[in-house]
Protein 1
Amino acid sequence: MSFPLSPSSSSFSASPSLSSSVLDAHGWDAGWAEGFAPYAAQGLVPGRVVRVDRGQCDVATADGTVRADTAFVTPHDPLRVVCTGDWAAVDPEGASDPRYVRACLPRRTAFARSTSSKRSEGQILAANVDHAVITVSLAVELDLGRIERFLALAWESGAQPTVVLSKADLVSDPVVLSHLVEDVEGIAPGVGVVPLSSATGEGVDVLKAVVSGGTTVLLGVSGAGKSTLANALVGEDVMTVQAARDVDGKGRHTTTTRNLFVLPGGGVLIDTPGLRGVGLWDAEAGVGQTFSEIEELAAGCRFQDCSHESEPGCAVTAALDAGTLPVRRLESYRKLIRENQRLVAKTDARLRNEIRKDWKRKGAEGRAAMAFKREGRLR
Ligand SMILES: Nc1nc2c(ncn2[C@@H]2O[C@H](COP(=O)(O)OP(=O)(O)OP(=O)(O)O)[C@@H](O)[C@H]2O)c(=O)[nH]1
Ligand SMILES: [Mg+2]
Ligand SMILES: [Zn+2]
């Protein structure tokens, strides 16, 4: 996808008003303006990061989209690297690209996962997201465990999840389709499940209502139909789409960057590259919310620290016996709890401390550089 810079970017103003139709369309509100006030006082300009690519990012500002370097705000902690959806403070100094991102506003929400690498590291997939749309293709067999994993990360992020069952046109029998929807509803308490076809338009209006306010991120494995859906929601072909491989039906990882778009009916949409793995990242609360019916049952166990194995008065095993709680569901819950505990134990405190120290030092250097620049400007 090409992402042309606005021709007006050369008239980038050093004293912008803190509200504009561009910023508003990207989700700017009184809270962001308040958080930005100290940066505005330093002469910095607000903008929303619409795309990040190798140390540079595109930022939508009141005066158009500008390219900015992220060197000043790239700490070792990958959780704090500039991400699509962040609100950035851009230095308007200098007429030529790239400009510099000097700071990012604290995120309201962030969708994080651990990378599949052995050295467990967190990675932010999207920042300041209100709705997480987990896109699951009906062209392949449903993987309930994977949906639960996505749901745990979505709840943990602070966003409201929705599951889209894409390519519904490929399921010709309406009875089969409604069973598939029920299966997913059964593992997603508190979550809307929308069967949808970008090909026929079925369900697209239902989703349009969900995404018409706030920021939505599309998540899912490669080939799930995220970019096709993004094009349907935006109303034009903003993203490239590619057929899955014939051999195994797997996607081709067509999308490689996270891209943010303003939707015609209001709201903001972020399309993301297909994920190979979705490791949990410190998602204890998210796992609890994903399996809320199990946690509710557990509250009724006789012993507070019941392990739901063989204790008397266990409400969870009683539900298993009664057939109201599927064994698969409980096993999936246990698996994610264990995975999360392992991950938290691995990220040792010393490493976290080092990251924090380094971040502080960088911050101090950045502030010193800014002060120096400001003084230089005054002279
Ligand atoms: N039949 C049918 N095919 C669809 C639908 N939506 C998407 N597809 C097809 O699915 C394939 C993959 O679609 P993409 O939108 O590129 O998938 P993606 O999730 O963006 O994939 P990555 O960018 O690799 O993560 C393409 O061949 C699409 O035409 C649909 O509603 N019905
Ligand atoms: Mg894509
Ligand atoms: Zn129990």
Note: The chain has three domains: 7-104, 110-271, 284-378.
Protein 2
Amino acid sequence: MFQNQDHPKLKQDSIRSNLRVDCENCFGLCCVALAFAASVDFAIGKDIGKACPNLEEDFRCGIHKNLRQEGFNGCTVFDCFGAGQKVSQVTFGGVDWHEDPDTAKKMFDVFPIMQQLHEMLWYLTEALTLKASQPIHEEISILLDETERLTGLSPDSLLELDVPAHRAAVNALLLKTSELVRTESHLREKGSKKREKFDRRGADLIGSKLKGADIRGANLRGAYLIAADLRDADLRSADLIGADFRDADLSGADLTGSIFLTQVQINAAKGDAQTKLPDSLSRPAHWFTFKSF
Ligand code: SF4
């Protein structure tokens, strides 16, 4: 029996409240610590540790309201999962890199590590609330607690962390979760029209024509769905972790019950008022100015 604070949904709410972006409490870390190259996503390129010229003294973005029009689409689809405010206010105690240039490099190096840990927390909290993954909830809960503990380490300890090893342990549990969810979906549909298991993990599906496709319970982990036509597709119970939906058309598609889908993926796609999303995600404003082809 769960104690109140151990209840999966309560635990998810409590952890996720710290995983939402809070730029007001961040020292513009994503605009300084990360590199980007001039491309269709960024009007200019810049190196790691160099402040973007659009970043103002108070750490606000000078073109925040016009990022897409100014050629900075890439900024609109980045999510630090709350790592920015954690590093700024907790790990470095609210001392910004202007005030303390000596620690600036350390802060910029810690940021991507924290971003990865927070991203893992996001997925683990989702895995913990799924009914199909109940047989492994205890394992998930233990790893979730451990990941949360790591986010509270000192800057030096964070820099020494073996992030790939921890990510591999998390990924193994997310894979088990995925298998349980998708198997349940296939069993649930047993007796209805027979469906082929759609397994396209990491596949190149760029520009593919999947309009109206029944791909419930599909494995689309890390699939490249850039500019794919997914209008009216049924993606319920599909594993969408890391799938690249840039410019994919999700108009009328049903993504309810899909797993490991994030707001960033949705922000990168096109959609409309008929697109059905999981409860935790919202319709991006730019969908209402986009017309499906
Ligand atoms: S354009 Fe704005 S949001 Fe993007 S990196 Fe520069 S300051 Fe940050």
Note: The first helix runs from residue 8 to 16.
Protein 3
Amino acid sequence: MSADLPDSLRPDTLAVHTGIHRSEANEMSEGMFLTQGYAYDSAEQARDAFAGEIDIYMYSRYANPTVTAFQERLAAIEGAESCFATSTGMSAVFVSLGSILGQGDRLVAAKALFGSTLQTFANFFEKWGIEIDYVDGNDPADWERALATPAKAVFIESPTNPMQDVLDIPRIAELSHAAGALLIVDNVFATAIGQKPLELGADAVVYSATKHIDGQGRVLGGAILGSADYVDGPVKLMVRNMGATISPFNAWVLLKGLETLAVRVRHQAASALELATWLDDHPKVRIARYPLHPSHPQHELAVSQMSLGGTLVTLDLDLGPGVDVAGPEAQAAAFRFMNALRLFTCSNNLGDAKSISTHPATTTHNKMSPEGRAEVGISETTVRLSIGLEDVEDLRADLERALAQV
Ligand SMILES: Cc1ncc(COP(=O)(O)O)c(C=O)c1O
């Protein structure tokens, strides 16, 4: 926390004023410390720093002033005791679990997760002898079954990517703790502005900062937030030694991104709700999923744990009764729709100022088996829309024009 700020500031104020450590130049905008390391005043000082007797910057794989500023600011917004930044969202996911799991440990995870997270679990954690129990995230009985046996960690996304299932964080936290497990929530879809998993009972939160925190599609980054014991213990030990460190340049971009995160996300979420409401009634759309829309299957739960519904709308096109939603005709219709969009760019990021359309079955979730995709509800007709900062009426007109191609 920066010196001499008044007590009890609210997150919007903290987002602008936390993490400021001005240099002798007294700069207004935060300085960028683009350096691999730091000079010691003497050999004795270097010795004492390596011995852990004094706490100074030593090497940027360990710590860097710009990265510290980003960590302090994000921790203040999230209301977390501690934050550690990582090179990407995936390194945050990996380290959040890899730093505490060992051979023979049990990990319980919801089935519906980002594609690379599932790949990491299947190709590495399982190979290293970690037992993984996958749960149907919206089935309370399945959570009770899985967490009747002790576990080391529980990992979920809520809302999930891309189908926007909303999971009961307080209940899953209760069951996790009874099983002796740490509950880690990937909060990318909700953002730090729309949902506070730590207040809902989770132990740790991970972010791909590449998404809304940057918000303008410039850099990759990630972060892990939680108690000082966990973040400054195993998490820091692992990142510092395995080297999944964020670059100071990226941390600076993300630090500045945090200043505008709330206004961007509130604007994008308002447009997303408006478009979801309109799309859900559109004859060419079977369903438009948005957590805070009344038609969402877990709408009440979403209202109880989210203050904003996020910036994404996941729709399924309505191709009529004769069309196989897993077949080539469905894929061709989804591609016609996406290729006709002019303001939604076909890409696989989300949370950007520019609106984005993604076909999860053939991109972000293409490594899942067709059965696995069907199980979580992803079909060839599914299109994920990330709503940007454009005028909502221009976005609606673009979608209307493209839906006419379906
Ligand atoms: C929910 C979720 N978690 C993690 C990640 C990984 O983030 P990164 O691409 O920054 O590694 C993504 C990226 O799309 C994501 O959507």
Note: The pocket of pyridoxal-5'-phosphate is lined by residues 88-90, 93, 114, 116, 157, 161, 186, 188, 208, 210, 220, 222 (CB under 6 Å).
Protein 4
Amino acid sequence: MSKSNTILYLDGVSVSFDGFRAINNLSLVLDKGEMRAIIGPNGAGKTTMMDIVTGKTRPDEGEVFFDGQVDLTRRDEAEIAMMGIGRKFQKPTVFESHSVEDNLMLALKGPRSIFPALFHRSSAAETRRIDDILGIIRLGDKREELAANLSHGQKQWLEIGMLLAQDPKLLLVDEPVAGMTDAETEETARLLKDIARDHSVIVVEHDMHFVRELGVKVTCLHEGSVLSEGTLDFVSADERVVEVYLGR
Ligand SMILES: Nc1ncnc2c1ncn2[C@@H]1O[C@H](COP(=O)(O)OP(=O)(O)OP(=O)(O)O)[C@@H](O)[C@H]1O
Ligand SMILES: [Mg+2]
């Protein structure tokens, strides 16, 4: 299969922990600009797949390419982050004692930033960028609020905003709506669809209502490989998916 026009290309990837194959001959391809939802039972290897992409775990075998040409198996975590792969873990890790704006400012001045080299203080360009991000993450009226005072869902959005501040090409988002209210969950689907207009995104989720709202191609992992892939309707109708996951 051709790697051109792919943002992420995994082929024949395997990794074992103490003899247990957590990822087993996994092949998964994401086109540039695509958003993909990944589902599958606990222990299917969804988070481990993200660990491999971000360089946290090195595969035993297989190809992992970013942007059609960069061999990620030869890069470390810091290099991979610098190249533009941003990851959001399940638990929000915002700075609680700082305002929403300061959290975003800190992220904006992070390692991938163009700002520290060009400006000393908060510049007009930085303020505009923060305005943009606040709009995307639905926190336009919370700029001065301490992060500690945000709801769980709003903290998740702030952390997504901090990722956006680093201007990633590919975002990996692991279980973003766990613990959110129904209203926050629906807003998160809209938020990610907004982001997906100019980023490639992989979202891992167990919430099928949320996955349906996303309206994107779905990959179901099981025992470290792809069990089924296609529209949510196609994947949900797959008897093997019902057996190992949806019908539990
Ligand atoms: N660093 C590690 N050391 C040992 N075993 C690991 C490691 N990382 C993952 N595993 C094992 O690999 C398997 C896949 O785990 P993983 O966390 O990727 O599943 P998951 O699909 O994300 O599940 P969940 O839906 O529960 O988050 C599990 O059996 C897990 O215990
Ligand atoms: Mg997981």
Note: The chain has a mean pLDDT of 94.
